[in-house]
């Protein structure tokens, strides 16, 4: 079994060392060394079944791991946006009431964050009546209500069109700037993600390669996963950051491009 500690190392919010996860006798993640620092936007990409969602759940303590060490900042606050939220359409719950689950929050808190994310006009709407884009923005607002140290998004733009996805990721960048939080996300939308990230991690059961987007996109390991035409998908928008990350690519695997979902 793994050891989970709360010791802070340098500026790292979460760190895994030789992390492995086996489910029903199948190795989903093998020997994962990973960390995220304050203020970073890190995106995990990979083919279906590569373990992306499993990695996120393990890092935040929602998935039992088989071996390795996970270290988290003591008192770490995590905001989480899932792939989807399946609501019973007959359940009468407004957006404002949804923000009070599982504990009540003040109107001032709700109104402030809802104005920032442009969902204040939805507070009296029934959750079941929201469009896909509206729902994801509401889930995002709820995730940042308590000013998390790290915002975790698991395929949070699934079902949105390209423009909707771009706007959503721009909102994430804005939140990172105003809240000072790190962002850890899983996505298959390379046309947006590669431009929205400080660091990209290519996963296929193990870490195939990682580093700054411009570096990773030129790596043969990345192209083996996603094809040779993906380097030209970086231009949707690009943020400016004042730090760089070293790339570290050791393995090469061929796989089909991810279309969403996954383990």
Please tell me about this protein's structure.
There is one protein chain. This protein has a domain at 90-146. The protein is α/β, with parallel strands linked by helices. It has helices at residues 52-59, 95-98, 107-116, 132-143, 162-179, 190-196, 213-216, 220-226, and strands spanning 3-5, 12-23, 26-37, 41-45, 67-72, 78-81, 150-154, 182-186, 199-203, 207-211. Strand 9 and strand 10 (207-211) form a beta hairpin.
Give a short summary of the structure.
The protein is an alpha/beta fold and 263 residues long. 27% of the residues lie in helices and 24% in strands. It has a domain at 90-146.
What are the SSEs and their pairings?
Layout: E1 3-5, E2 12-23, E3 26-37, E4 41-45, H1 52-59, E5 67-72, E6 78-81, H2 95-98, H3 107-116, H4 132-143, E7 150-154, H5 162-179, E8 182-186, H6 190-196, E9 199-203, E10 207-211, H7 213-216, H8 220-226
Parallel strand pairs: 1-5, 4-8, 4-9, 6-7, 7-8
Antiparallel strand pairs: 2-3, 2-5, 9-10
The secondary-structure class comes to alpha/beta
Main sheet summary = 6 strands, mixed
- How much beta, percentage-wise? 15-25%
Order of helices and strands: EEEEHEEHHHEHEHEEHH
Outline type: globular
| Low-confidence regions | 230-261
Helix content: 25-40%
Give a count of the beta strands, DSSP E runs of length 2 or more.
10
How many helices? The count is 8
In the sheet with the most strands, the strands line up as 6-7-8-4-9-10
Rg over alpha carbons: 18 Å
Key features of this structure:
6-stranded mixed sheet; alpha/beta; single chain; 263 residues; 8 helices
């Amino acid at each position: 079994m793994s050891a989970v500690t709360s010791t802070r190392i340098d500026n790292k919010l979460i760190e895994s060392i030789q992390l492995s996860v086996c489910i029903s006798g199948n190795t989903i993640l093998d020997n994962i060394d990973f960390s995220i620092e304050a203020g970073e936007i890190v995106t995990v990409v990979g083919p279906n079944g590569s373990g992306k969602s499993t990695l996120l759940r393990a890092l935040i303590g929602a998935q039992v791991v088989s071996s390795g060490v996970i270290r988290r900042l003591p008192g770490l606050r995590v905001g989480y946006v899932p792939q989807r939220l399946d609501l019973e359409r007959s359940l009468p719950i407004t957006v404002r009431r949804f923000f009070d689950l599982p504990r009540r929050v003040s109107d001032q808190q709700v109104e402030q964050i809802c104005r920032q994310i442009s969902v204040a006009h939805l507070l009296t709407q029934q959750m079941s009546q929201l469009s896909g884009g509206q729902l994801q923005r509401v889930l995002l607002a709820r995730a940042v209500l308590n000013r998390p140290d790290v915002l975790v998004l698991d395929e949070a733009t699934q079902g949105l069109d390209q423009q909707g996805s771009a706007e959503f990721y721009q909102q994430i960048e804005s939140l990172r700037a105003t809240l000072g939080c790190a962002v850890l996300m899983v996505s298959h939308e390379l046309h947006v993600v590669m431009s929205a990230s400080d660091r990209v991690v290519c996963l296929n059961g193990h870490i195939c390669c990682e580093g700054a987007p411009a570096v990773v996109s030129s790596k043969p390991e990345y192209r083996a996963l996603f094809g040779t035409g993906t380097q030209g998908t970086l231009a949707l928008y690009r943020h400016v950051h004042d730090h760089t990350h070293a790339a570290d690519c050791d393995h090469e695997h061929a796989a089909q491009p991810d279309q969403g979902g996954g383990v």
